[in-house]
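To: structure subgroup
Subject: Chain for Friday's discussion

All,

I'm putting the inputs and outputs inline so they're searchable in the archive.
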Amino acid sequence: MFIEVLILGIIVGGFQNGRLSNLTDLNIRGWYMILVALLLSLFPVFFNNISIMKDLQVYMLFASMIIILLVVLLNLDKKGAWLIFLGGAFNIILMALHNFQMPVMMSGLDTAGLTALKEGISDGSIVNYVASEATGIMTIFTKFIPIPKPYPLPKILSFGDIMMTLGLFWMIVGEMKKTNYFGKGKMVSYTYGSTFKKR
């Protein structure tokens, strides 16, 4: 979802006379931590044949999300960052309460047509998700919002995912529209001898 929002945000920002160069010049504090999070999330994929990796995979994925959330926390001054942080925190709390796995409504997977994902959760081959047994209003604390075809990339989202998506869109458009000032006018005092001062 984030790739689609990135593209949409750039398009909307462009129509609002935003500058794409603002994104390339964007200063992300703690950006190197994103690389660490990426390595943590990919490490189990490349070393999945090692038995201990299968046991640690769910914790490494959870740790990568924590690191990303810390990066967002370091950049709360940017538009939309607080919304990304709240959405990420919502998801992380959910996972912490469900053995570090994200609860998913299986009926939502059927609606979205995500058969392979449903089978992977059921047989345990996909470890970062777990089938949710929540009912009624408690379903909002899961991934329960299906986006089925004809959307080209069907998926199922949580309330936290929606918040992060909106926050990212807000950040992209806001940063593109931001005006950069490279200098500010200042009053300068010059003293000539001891008789007068020109300002």
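Points worth raising on Friday:
The longest strand covers residues 143-147.
Residues 73 and 167 are 13 Å apart (CA to CA).

D.
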